[in-house]
Amino acid sequence: MQDNKFFSSNPMFGHAYVPIQVMKKIYFPEESLEKGTAFPELYNQYRPLESMEAIRFLKDYKERSCAYEPR
Predict the structure, then answer these.
(1) For labelling alongside 29, which of 4, 36, 48, 64 has CA 20 to 30 A away?
(2) Model pTM?
């Protein structure tokens, strides 16, 4: 693992390592309710059928024998 100030120098399998988040800004209450979060860093706009496009792409990619194979 690379030298990283956020993670342990001796990581263990099955343990979660979460970097510390620094709160810089929050949405106003009305906007928070609309977006489903008060934190701009966590907001990810929902796009209908976006996951289906990704599934089709990965299936096509795999069928063309271009699947990723680790070294």
Answers:
(1) 48
(2) 0.41
